Amino acid sequence: MILDKKIAAKTADYLLQINAIKLNPKNFFVWCSGWKSPIYCDNRVILSHPKIRNYVCDSLVSQIKKLYGSDITIAGVATGAIAIGALVANQLNCPFIYVRPEPKKHGRKNQIEGCLSKDEKVVVVEDLISTGKSSLNSVKALISKKANVLGMVAIFNYGFENATIEFKKLNLNFNTLSDYEYLLVEASKRKTIDPSSLDYLKNWRKSPDRWGD
Fold first, then answer.
1. Which candidate in 8, 29, 113, 175 could, as Cys together with 40 as Cys, close a disulfide (CB 3.0–4.6 Å)?
2. Are 123 and 73 in contact, with CB atoms under 8 Å apart?
């Protein structure tokens, strides 16, 4: 869900400016899920650009305060959202933890790093929501430790239907600064993509798991 249209448009424009999002309709990228995609989003690039990093952090903080208040713990999803999650928690002056994809194989074998108490109110910060698997895996890990997960906020969302369905199954609210629809609009304005590629990119999202077969 998008809360602020202006933030959504500006975030998409910033991501395109710094090449955090690359669009290549003619040659596909391969995601870790195995899906073939004409788009690749790497929000870690944001960290190298102070102005945009601050904008994204401020926007996430503003939305978290509006939705959940500040008496919370921020949980970053490893690895992409650890840094931005820590920055958000610092600005909110609240505790921070992060969640690994799976427990460590050595040491204390933690999946959740940091201090987490039973019934603690947690807001999950994610850099990107694609299939939703890694995001929801983190939420399930927190729930297994009896945390009270209030919701999730993310920088960007592809808007895949199957991801939305999985979030609904957990009855988990999630909000993002921007999404795929705003990206296409801003990419068209910047002439990053030509009109003939626009329909192609829209159609890809309808069946990304079968694209390129």
1. 29
2. yes
- The number of CA neighbours under 13 Å toward the Cβ of 95 is 13
CATH number where 191 lies:
3.40.50.2020
Give the model's pLDDT for residue 199: 83
pTM more than 0.85: yes
> Are the C-beta atoms of 177 and 170 separated by less than 8 Å?
no
Rounded Cα distance, 116 and 122, in Å: 9
Give the pLDDT score at 213. Answer: 57
Pairing of strands 96-99, 112-113: antiparallel
- Is the predicted pLDDT of residue 133 greater than 60, yes or no? yes
Backbone angles phi, psi at 36, to 5 degrees: -100, 135
Domain span including residue 203? 5-210
Which of 147, 75, 149 is CA-nearest to residue 118? 147
Per the structure, the count of domains in the chain is 1
In total, the chain counts a number of residues equal to 213
d(CA 190, CA 188): 5
